[in-house]
Amino acid sequence: MVRCHFCIAYISLLLALPVLTACRAEATPPVAGDATAVPLPLPLPSPTNAQVAQVEQATKMGETTVATIPSSTTSTPEIIATHTAVFTPFPPPHTATPPPAPRPATSIVVNHTSVSLFDQIPEAYLQAAAALNMAFVNRSVGFNIHQALDCLQHETSATAPHYCKRWQHVPKHPEFNTDPNEVNWNRVGGYGRSNWHYYTWPQVGDPSMQVQCTASTGMWFGYAECFEQWATGVLDKYQVLSFQTSYLEVENNSSIADQPGGFFWDNPNRYDVYDLQAFVAQHPDHVFIYWTTSLARSIGTPVSASFNEQMRQYAIVNGFPLFDVADILSHTPDGTPCYDNRDGIPYDNGHQSENYPDDGLDIPAICPHYTTETDGGHLGSVSTGAIRVAKAFWVLMAQIAGWQP
């Protein structure tokens, strides 16, 4: 196994890219204890405009398309492989081994600025994204996202259940209402996600959906290890896999963002990003999405802010798709940042008050426009946050399928 260790600055990594291509015979975890020593992925070519036009034209005509796209198994950027299944329906999950998922040509970052791209996704890439067999593991906020993805399966918001289109906050605080257009959509046949599956961790939710693993899931490193155990068993069913860290894992007493000792540190006695990266490197025909955390009104914490910044840097430097849920939930639809409930916000839902003393720290937290909870961060009582995340997830999946907006 050839290991490449890079301890120079990011610009030096870019300048050394030809050397990276030559020496990276096999992807390996970064050097222990060195946050900058992370191997960059091999650059892959992007589809040409002519190739994209070919796909879209064939899709309009109802033809089966043979599309030339960058292959994740090529050894040099110049080699392009032909895949026939990328833009045609894959076998449904649990019936056959799916073809390899297309690997993104460059880093994909989906955040609050990406939601507006939802209505611009070309039909060809909507179909390609829907055809990908995808699974994500999450807790209760993940279930809210799962429900919002179900909402988008309806052709219009008018035909969707009422819980899909709640744009108004509690009557006492109309300042937290959003534009009704935030929960509107319209597409013939809806946005089908039958190939996209949500799973929850052990002892949470529907037992039939539980992830089975032996690792303890009481701490952040237990969830990460549990994900690998579960993913190992479903690699033949899904092409795109991921899990999200809950806001409960980034409370002030959590060690997840510690340096040393946290998720982004090479720990000898607990599962961390180095173990996850080794697992991902063993499965180059699959796409692994990296998420920032969900957020609550009380979380915003220094831990959540630090962890999410480390996650953004890690995913971007390594070229992994990043679904920046924390960024989406901590900005209003017009882009205004939101901060934690320790800033004296006059907000009362009839049970509790957010009138906590201002601690002088502006830490990103879920906007009150997206939840009626004064300390929590669930997305069910008002729909805008969940629908915005669901729309952003379609943007993410379309880019994984090859769209370059």
| Order of strands in the sheet with most strands | 3-8-7-6-4-5
Rg: 21 Å
Summed up, the helix count is: 10
Structural class: alpha/beta
Order of helices and strands: HHHEEEHEHEHEHEHEHH
* Average pLDDT over all residues: 77
Strand content: 5-15%
The count of strands amounts to 8
The parts where pLDDT drops under 50 for at least 5 residues are 1-98
Residues in helix, %: 25-40%
**Quaternary structure annotation:** single chain
**Major sheet, described briefly?**
6 strands, parallel
The first-to-last residue Cα distance is: 37 Å
| Structural domains: how many | 2
Shape verdict: globular
Fold and architecture overview:
With 405 residues, the chain is α/β, with parallel strands linked by helices. It has 2 domains: 40 residues, no CATH class; 354 residues, no CATH class. A 6-stranded parallel sheet has the order 3-8-7-6-4-5, with helices on both faces. The chain has a two-stranded antiparallel sheet with strand order 1-2. Helix 4 crosses helix 10. The chain is globular. The protein starts with 9 loop residues before the first helix and ends in a 5-residue tail after the last helix. The N terminus is likely disordered.
